[in-house]
Design brief:
Length: 266
Amino acid sequence: MMSATSADARDNGGAERQGIQSVEIAMRILRALEESGGPVGLSAIAQASGTQPSKAHRYLVSLGRVGLTQQNPSSGLYDFGPALRHLGAEALRRTNEVAVASDHAARLRDETGHSLNVGVWGETGPIIVNWAYGAHPLPITVRVGATLPLLSSSIGNVFLAHLPDTVTEPILRQALSVQQGRAWSRAKVDKLTAEVLRRGYAVSLGGVIPGVVSVAAPVFTATDPMPLAMSFVVPDRLATDETVENLSDRLIVATRAVSGELGYSV
């Protein structure tokens, strides 16, 4: 005969497994709401989450009781509730954007052997906040905390293309007024930014470090126009067209992953 203790252990184990499964199903319901892009009906939620409508309804009732979902009394459509919005805002507040990007940069460095840096937008333009040094020596390196040029660096080009004009215009005017900017016209700047937006990344040759090619791509969040950019830094002798294309593809995948972790969705 099974002892009471054994029976309790069996029951507790079963309850624990059921509890975990229930959390996973509840998460599928919430994912279905996320992917809907707005208020949605019960049948669509059930289909997207792979559950029967009656089962989806029971979960929505429970999620609604704790504020994770809510139902519009007029339309009957479901959406995220106030508790979930508060949780999301708090999660974003606690996220260290530079740390997330730097972790991905270090992994890319380990996978490719090439150096990467992470830049943020500052009062005077793009600022380097992290270097992940690779296996291939560079002629020189730009120290952490240094400001990069807006027009001649790949990270600068990415910020120029993606940030609002009201943010970049003062720095751009200054760049166009100094000697290095005399070869630049507004038409050339517009052409550059259009190309960066079309490709999804920027490439510069020797703009900051002679003999070095850099490839940069943007990182986005749910609350900031573009807080970060990541860049490969490659010795010119290794920067074949094939290598640059491969690194660009890997960088775009990485920056999209970082953006996703920071709450951004396309």
